[in-house]
Amino acid sequence: MRSLQPSHFTDGSLPVFVFPQSLTFYADEQSTHKQVLTVYNPYEFTLRFKVFCTAPKRYIVVESDGVIKPRCCIDIVVRHSDVQTAKTQLDKFRLQIFEYGLQKVIGQKEIMAVLQPSRKEHQQMSKDKSTTRSVTSQRTENSGGTVEQFTDSGLVGQQGPSLWVIIMAAVCIIALVLPLEGDKYTRSVPHYLLLSVNQKLLASFILGLITMAVLKT
């Protein structure tokens, strides 16, 4: 089975793996003013990366461009240098991936960066938002009482993962249980069902990201 090559993604569609998916800073907590982005290269070729930001004067990015060797990862340190705020501040980072030695973008990923005035205030707002209820009072003349009809909007959007997420997770699980390329017991298995070690590692990594995303919802 052929391995992935940079030439397959000239349209910029190469999947980019970065964790976490967003950065949250708290103005009243100095320990959160420094965050780390980990960029993974599960491929068999070297990648070059470059970090852009919608508000570059607010951040100090250590090693905003560099090289990631095959099947390796790199940590990018992001420091927020302007935390004097009384309201929520929203910025965006863009991570662009290039084939090593070339200038054409073969993949990119956007990471949201949020500065909150206070962790307690943010948690309280999130709690209030999740428990918000839309109450519609409907008065009826039934025994002189008042009937209240509840619509719990806090439950909207908590119906579980989408169909695409389930399908992607199922594909990753199937990839992990398929036989390994080069195994002596797989002679009777069609060659297109044999996966390499790198492909299984990629499936395992994607399944891990899906699991973390589902657990956060």
UniProtKB/TrEMBL annotation:
Gene3D superfamilies: Immunoglobulins. The gene is MOSPD1. Residues 132-146 have a biased composition (Polar residues). PROSITE patterns: MSP. Residues 118-146 are annotated as: Disordered. The chain crosses the membrane at residues 162-180, 192-215. Residues 1-137 form the MSP domain. This is Motile sperm domain-containing protein 1. Keywords: Membrane, Transmembrane, Transmembrane helix. The lineage of its organism: Eukaryota, Metazoa, Cnidaria, Anthozoa, Hexacorallia.
